[in-house]
Amino acid sequence: METILLSDSAEDVSAAAELIKNGEVVGIPTETVYGLGADACNEAAVRAVFAAKGRPADNPLIVHLADFSQAAHYTLFIPPLAYKLAERFCPGPLTMVLPKNEKIPMVTSGGLDTVGIRVPSHPVMHGIIERSGCPIAAPSANISGLPSPTCAEHVMKDMNGRISAVLDGGDSKFGVESTVISFDSDDTVRILRPGAVTREMLLGVCREVVIDPAILRELKEGEKAVSPGMKYKHYSPKADIIMVEGELEGFKEIISRNNGEGVYSLIFDGDEKDFPYRHFTYGADSSEQAHWLFQRLRELDEIGAKKVYVRAPLKDGVGLAVYNRLIRAAGFEVIRI
Ligand code: TXA
Ligand code: MG
């Protein structure tokens, strides 16, 4: 299959929508990361998404809508709190897990009786959903296990020859995937995957926000993942990633002891002064770090890094999302200074 590259012109947006309407799989831009889009109600198209990614069949896809008001068509029940959250955060990087109805096939929901609903804010993505007239199922557009793609070039690298087209809508603004939440009670939500809609922001609308334990540590044997995605190794480049929590001085000491061929550091902007080892930087604050993390992990692979020591981000705000992706990329290997 030849994968064509589309632009964000009105004509190409229509072409992408038409392909999706006809059951094809298209790489599409969103404000978080690029997705692999297909008609969420077309079982064959959804199967093609799983096949292109090499994704386990029990890991559900998020369904993207043009407007939250359409969520009622695909769900059995929407709690009042979900409407309040939608008012504040939709469109945007928030996915709400709700009880699905029969319009969403079991393939799409990975066999679960719930569906993750998201209303993306990227104008091109919005246009594609509207013009296709379909709810669009879209996982991140990477090969399963690799870092998520934050530009069209990354998608082409992973998906060339596997899907019909990729639409280039520019670099993804946030750089990490959406915040995924479920509803524990009338006024409490649970974060299943942290993202740019932070715990602090959700607390402006909910009485309580529970951080699911699987966000920060490995599931113990026999412990069940609330979100199937949490049990798979994720975001891992080929290099061995080691996360280091603590001050810069201690970090430098660790590198001086472990330096060697193929060893790299991924540090904060501002750390590079008097840093005499091979390194990349990934931003000065949590938002920048979210934006650059996946791009840097891909670059480190490209130059053949074998071992990468990463300065751990803060765990508040969007930093929690960065920390969560990194600890998974590191296979939970953390050095605490
Ligand atoms: O920002 C995003 O969410 C991107 C863009 C393309 O929208 N999509 C994305 O999809 O990251 P994906 O499939 O790579 O990650 C979806 C995550 C997985 O960890 C999955 O297990 C979880 O959300 N998820 C999806 N539906 C769920 C459900 N019904 N219950 C629990 N977890 C769910
Ligand atoms: Mg993904």
Largest sheet: 11 strands, mixed
Strand tally, please? 16
Tally of separate helices: 9
What is the first-to-last residue Cα distance?
A: 50 Å
Strand composition percent: 15-25%
CATH H-level superfamily of the largest domain: DHBP synthase
Report the mean per-residue pLDDT as an integer: 96
* Helix-strand topology string: EHEEHEHEEHEHEEEHEEHEEHEHE
**Helicity, as a percent range:** 25-40%
Structural class: alpha/beta
The CATH class of the largest domain, by name, is Alpha Beta
What is the CATH architecture descriptor of the largest domain? Alpha-Beta Complex
Structural domain count: 2
Q: Please identify the oligomeric state.
A: single chain
Biggest β-sheet: strands ordered side by side in the sheet: 1-8-2-3-7-4-6-5-9-10-11
Uncertain regions spanning at least 5 consecutive residues = none
**What is the molecular shape?**
globular
**CATH topology category name of the largest domain:** DHBP synthase
Task: Compute the CA-based radius of gyration.
Answer: 20 Å
Which small-molecule ligands are present, each listed once? threonylcarbamoyladenylate, magnesium ion
Structure description:
By secondary structure, the protein is an alpha/beta fold. The protein folds into 2 domains: about 5-215, DHBP synthase (Alpha-Beta Complex); about 240-335, Threonylcarbamoyl-AMP synthase, C-terminal domain (Rossmann fold, 3-Layer(aba) Sandwich). About 30% of the residues lie in helices and about 20% in strands. The chain contains 9 helices and 16 strands. The longest helix has 17 residues, at about 285-300. The radius of gyration is 20 Å and the shape is globular. The structure holds threonylcarbamoyladenylate and magnesium ion. The site of threonylcarbamoyladenylate has 28 residues, from strand 5, strand 6 and strand 10.
